[in-house]
TrEMBL record:
<dbReference type="InterPro" id="IPR057022">
    <property type="entry name" value="PF0610-like_Zn_ribbon_C"/>
</dbReference>
<dbReference type="Pfam" id="PF21476">
    <property type="entry name" value="PF0610-like_N"/>
</dbReference>
<dbReference type="InterPro" id="IPR049159">
    <property type="entry name" value="PF0610-like_wHTH_N"/>
</dbReference>
<dbReference type="InterPro" id="IPR038767">
    <property type="entry name" value="PF0610-like"/>
</dbReference>
<dbReference type="Pfam" id="PF23470">
    <property type="entry name" value="Zn_ribbon_PF0610"/>
</dbReference>
<protein>
    <submittedName>
        <fullName>Transcriptional regulator</fullName>
    </submittedName>
</protein>
<dbReference type="InterPro" id="IPR036390">
    <property type="entry name" value="WH_DNA-bd_sf"/>
</dbReference>
<feature type="domain" description="PF0610-like rubredoxin-like zinc beta-ribbon C-terminal">
    <location>
        <begin position="59"/>
        <end position="95"/>
    </location>
</feature>
<feature type="domain" description="PF0610-like winged HTH N-terminal">
    <location>
        <begin position="3"/>
        <end position="56"/>
    </location>
</feature>
Length: 97
């Protein structure tokens, strides 16, 4: 039996996922689920360093004006440039270094 974090690692070693896609793949529903996943990703990025792997982040992007956020493990709610809340989620992937 794999833990949720182990399952996330396995998924991200295959391809990139956004937090929403991870929730779907793990069959997790409900409010606050994305926050749980972000916390998992933060913990995972720390443990990976000891295994010669790295968590790659494709930053969030404003779908209205194209503003690119910093590559961080968080979900921005609003664009600082145009104030749109139409934000493309960041995507995460694990690579072996
Ligand atoms: Zn924008």
């Amino acid at each position: 039996m794999m833990t949720r974090r182990q399952r996330i690692i396995k998924l991200l070693e295959e391809r990139d996922y956004s937090p929403s896609e991870l929730a779907l793949a793990l069959d997790m529903r409900g409010k606050g689920i994305k926050k749980v996943i972000l916390e998992d990703l933060k913990a995972i990025s720390k443990t990976l360093k000891h295994e010669g792997k790295v968590l790659l982040i494709k930053p969030a992007e404003c779908r209205k004006c194209g503003f690119v956020f910093k590559p961080e493990i968080k979900l921005p709610s609003k664009c600082p440039r145009c104030h749109s809340s139409w934000i493309e989620e960041p995507r995460f992937k694990i690579e072996i270094r």
